[in-house]
Specification:
The protein is an alpha/beta fold and about 150 residues long. It has 4 helices and 5 strands, in the order E-H-E-E-H-E-H-E-H. The structure holds flavin mononucleotide. Flavin mononucleotide (FMN) binds near residues 10, 59, 89, 94 and 122.
């Protein structure tokens, strides 16, 4: 069983969230590769059973530019069997809170077995830890359903 987290972050909020999720996956005895979007280049998605994708939102709820290639990779690789989750941070000051999470969610729903989504306001706080636990539990449970 192989699991990965792939994320993009500029000011650190999404990377903190990715690290929390990584730690919680490992606490569940799921060895999980943690990649920034740059580190994931030239890796294959279809080798994984679980993939969690993390992003911030930009420019009226849009996907960051550096995430576009990964988005297209999901659309073109054979990833039907992959159980996925999408998480992100955003700022509810903007009209479309965590819009990039919704864009990824809609695409992953079509191309993968989408299990769960998680939106966090800016830097994760203590009460987000329980939400991260639920995110990981759902990923693992849905993997069991498809395998
Ligand atoms: C120019 C700009 C545009 C943004 N647009 C949005 C947006 O449309 N929706 C949203 O939820 N957050 C938006 N944000 C907030 C960021 O997504 C948020 O600060 C996020 O936590 C940054 O993640 P990072 O620390 O991982 O880089 C925007 C921030 C900036 C600076």
């Amino acid at each position: 069983m192989k699991a990965a987290i792939i994320y993009s972050s500029v000011t650190g909020n999404t990377s903190t969230l990715a690290e929390i999720i990584h730690e919680k996956m490992e606490q569940r005895d799921i060895k999980t590769d943690l990649f920034t979007i740059d580190q994931f280049q030239n890796h294959s998605l279809k080798d994984y059973d679980i993939i969690a994708v993390g992003t911030y939102s930009w420019d009226n709820g849009d996907l960051p530019l550096e995430m576009e290639e990964l988005f297209e990779q999901f659309e073109t690789e054979d990833v039907d069997h992959v159980t996925t989750g999408v998480f992100g941070t955003g700022d509810s000051f903007y009209p479309y809170f965590c819009g990039a999470v919704d864009l990824l969610k809609d695409m992953l729903f079509v191309h993968t077995h989408l299990a769960v989504t998680l939106k966090v306001e800016l830097m994760p706080q203590d009460d987000d830890l329980t939400r991260c636990d639920k995110f990981c539990d759902r990923l693992v449970r849905e993997l069991a359903v498809v395998s």
